[in-house]
Amino acid sequence: MTIPLQPTSTDIRMFPDGRMDGKNAAAYLGLTQKSLAIMRSLGNGPVFFKLGGRCFYMRADLDAWIQSRRATSTADYRVKQRQAQQNAVA
Fold this sequence. Notes:
This protein is of the alpha+beta class. It has helices at about 20-30, 35-40, 60-70, 75-90, and strands spanning about 20, 50, 55-60.
């Protein structure tokens, strides 16, 4: 039996300046808030900033992070991940 895929809709709230809180940024990326928080603490997630003790993400930074993770093969993806890790350490 084949179950047809149904597109899902997620309401993502964004400030007029393109800023999103962690909950909305995670939904935008298709991640859980916990995954995004772990990436933030490890330094391998998208660029963020803190304002009033809360973490925010700009839509342009989320889009750039998505684009930086594009690859044509799993081998290419692994090379890019290693390069990103080396750049983060340097």
